[in-house]
Amino acid sequence: MASIGGQAIPRRTLLLIASEALLTSFALLLAMGAMLRGTPSPWQILQNSLGLWRFLIALTICMLSFYYNDLYDLQVRQTLTRTSVKLTRGLGCALFLMAVVAYFSPRLSPGQGVALIAAPTIMLLIISSRIGLRATATQRRGAERLLLVGSGALGKRVLLEMADRGDMNCSVVGHLSEDEQAGSEQYSLPYLGAVRELERICKEQRIDRIVLSMRERRGGMPVRELMRLKFQGVRIDDPYSLYERMTGRIVVENISPSFFIFSNGFKVSRVTRSLKRVCDFIIALVGLVVTAPIMLLVAMAIQIEDRGPVFYCQNRVGANRAVFRIYKFRSMRVAAPGTTPSWTTDGDRRITRVGHYLRLFRIDELPQFLNVLRGDMSLVGPRPEQPYFCTLLEEKLPYFSYRHTVRPGITGWAQVKYGYGATTEDALRKLELDLFYIKHLSVSLDLAVMFETVKVVLFGRGK
Predict the structure, then answer these.
(1) How far is it, in rounded angstroms, from Cα 119 to Cα 100?
(2) pLDDT tens digits for 208-243?
(3) C-alpha distances in angstroms, 400 versus 382, 405, 424, 433?
(4) Tens digits of residue pLDDT in 116-157
(5) What are the backbone angles phi and psi of residue 328, rounded to the nearest 5°?
(6) Is there a contact between 81 and 137 (Cβ–Cβ < 8 Å)?
(7) What is the pTM of this model?
(8) Which residues neighbour 6 within 8 Å (Cβ) at sequence distance 6 or greater?
(9) 361: buried, middle or exposed (CB in 10 Å: 19+, 13-18, 0-12)?
(10) What is the DSSP string of 390-431?
């Protein structure tokens, strides 16, 4: 299964993207062939270098617009109406971007009228394709059959989450329990029998994957049966690694230090660190120059609203627990001296009217390009916390201090997957994401985070 930085990408999602890229390509080539004079066939468009560039730019714009409008977010089951709305919105974004390309570089435009012809064709093809998928139940055909072996709570949590996601294409058959008397009452999953009946049940139920989540493994694990099933092609997973690949998080509840000691990852080469630092510096420098006009307008808006300070400076904990001053645009009213720090919640009255929009589109974070240039922060990494909250959370959450083994970031895996947090429970979920990022830290994972950050910024998905 394909993955990005350690998180699995469901095959169904990849197939859907590939098939709809082909449908979109067909519609674009059909429209270009119909509108461009002297081009009798779509094949001749691709043989011409300029025509090929026009086609590739138009296709890229369409697919990015579809992606950023959540057309391929299959983690929740989508109705046809919801899909139609997202597709319409995505086509609208694509038409706008093609118009921008045509205005600034007419030579790279797919051609006058091409987008208007291609849009309804794309709509018809994609909607028809998805109706066909739903009608034939393709997404459930060949679904992987899963079996939970044991009574561990994490195993149940993993399987129920997998079954609830529309993109995983799996079916949870049931569970086997170590305790035969309590087995049928313990889970909402169907109880199929005792662990000692493992081989028979796997054969009868045609099991593809076993999730082993036994409360006590010593003496109770059916080692020989598992070995025989393994050699027969049945996949066997522990809930920790499966949960990590599926969700992009490392569960920290009830996990032992040996997981971190013996697990692959959590080691970044010097070459990767150096490359990351060079990219951070260059992008931060360019970012300051490009966003300078926006920052000037933001500073004026903050001053007009309440005449308070434009910037907000605060101590934060960085790599190796070094404390540094972070720079942000002020999005809240100035607190009284000596006020105890507190998390920001939805609808917090301290947030100003300008600050609401700054936080929604993450514009308040732009001055942190200066922190990146100074080396206090990276573009991508765990968000830096205040010393007060670090002390508080280190007492309540195991392994929280290990967030400080890398530079904190302006954006991060936890930010694009979870958003802002205002409780200890939120901090726990974000810690799971941060540990996953630290374990799989790489240039490709950083690129994926920045790619997702664009969606957060463009569509105002900050919390």
Answers:
(1) 16
(2) 999 998 876 555 688 899 999 999 999 999 888 888
(3) 11, 10, 12, 11
(4) 889 999 999 999 998 887 766 544 556 788 999 988 778 888
(5) -145, 160
(6) no
(7) 0.84
(8) 244, 245, 248, 265, 436, 439, 440, 445
(9) middle
(10) HHHHHHHSTTGGGGGGS--EEE-HHHHHT----SHHHHHHHH
